[in-house]
Specification:
- This protein is mainly α.
- Helix content is about 75%, strand content about 5%.
- Helix 5 packs antiparallel against helix 6, helix 5 crosses helix 8 and helix 8 runs antiparallel to helix 9.
- It starts with 9 loop residues before the first strand and ends in a 6-residue tail after the last helix.
């Protein structure tokens, strides 16, 4: 005899665990190989680029004579070559982080199981894809770069849609949307070396916002407007508060030990990153909360609201 509260039957699935483990092994192999090959070449190119930029600055200041146009063209060429040589190592590190995520989910599926009634949620998948695209646009096209030595930090609007995704879709899907969209943004711009760190941190932002909003406070259920507003701002602030602390801290060790950027440059990057991250956080909390509160009633009325 079936009861209304009966738990759905679950199947233990090992496919995702196997896939994650295979990708993890491949990612580690590629990371070691590319670090010792193309990335080391990029380091040598970086040294040449630094000398060229120093000479270019001296020529601009009139300290030495030289062909300004030729030096500028050479700096651009070296910068492009350095970026292309850094890509393989960044791709392999991103693959490692993605494989770890798949492996963790695979372990859960193998130990806990997956409900037999689970089907592909096309509505959730479509919204996740849209929000990933908005994360990419918010970062790639709405940003202000701040040069710091051979590296850069930036003010951008990508985090707005990263937080919004978690509010609308929950931590898992929202975090993935933010991680994928922002990582693609790094891959297609000069921030390619930051892509692995971006994937990890944006996923964590989504998970934290989703945890506070949907698991702890159940914001997707029917509540008073005051309650929903308070929880929305609280969840957004928790996610971006984590990012303010974690981004500079993780960035420091990431740049120093995975990419070998000199200590003085890394320290400068951390200081600038802390400033830009704080400004980005305030903008993200206010904008994402306002957009969610505006969209929530409209989505519910149209039947497009997804309860995580």
């Amino acid at each position: 005899m079936k009861t209304e509260n009966a738990k759905p039957e679950k199947n233990k699935n090992y496919g995702l665990l196997i896939l994650g483990a295979v990708l993890l092994i491949i990612g580690i192999f590629l990371a070691v190989f590319t670090y010792n090959s193309s990335y080391q070449e990029s380091v040598a190119i970086g040294a040449q680029l630094k000398e060229t930029k120093s000479l270019l600055s001296a020529v601009k200041e009139g300290a030495v004579s030289g062909d300004l146009d030729a030096l500028t063209a050479e700096a651009d060429r070296l910068s492009t070559e350095k970026l292309s040589l850094e890509r393989p190592y960044s791709y392999s590190l991103t693959l490692i982080f993605f494989a770890i995520l798949l492996t963790a989910k695979g372990i859960y599926n193998a130990l806990i199981g997956v409900p037999k009634t689970d089907k592909a949620d096309v509505k959730r998948l479509a919204q996740a894809g849209l929000l990933a695209a908005l994360c990419y646009i918010g970062f790639a096209f709405f940003k202000i770069d701040i040069p710091v030595g051979p590296e850069k930090a930036s003010f951008h609007f990508g985090n707005v849609f990263c937080v919004l995704a978690a509010l609308l879709l929950g931590g898992y899907w929202g975090g993935l949307a933010g991680a994928v969209g922002m990582t693609i943004g790094d891959f297609t711009t000069s921030y390619v070396t930051s892509a692995p760190k971006t994937f990890l941190l944006k996923l964590c932002i989504g998970l934290i916002v989703g945890l506070v909003a949907h698991i702890i406070f159940k914001v997707s259920r029917d509540h008073s407007a005051k309650y929903v507003t308070g929880v929305t701002f609280l969840a957004s602030a928790c996610g971006m508060g984590f990012n303010v602390i974690a981004d500079p801290l993780v960035g420091y060790f990431y740049k120093t030990y995975l990419f070998g950027i000199p200590q003085d440059i890394t320290t400068a990057l951390v200081k600038i990153s802390a400033l830009t991250t704080s400004v980005n956080a305030v903008v993200a909390v206010i904008a994402a909360s306002a957009i969610y509160l505006a969209l929530r009633p409209a989505l519910k009325k149209s039947g497009l609201f997804v309860e995580p």
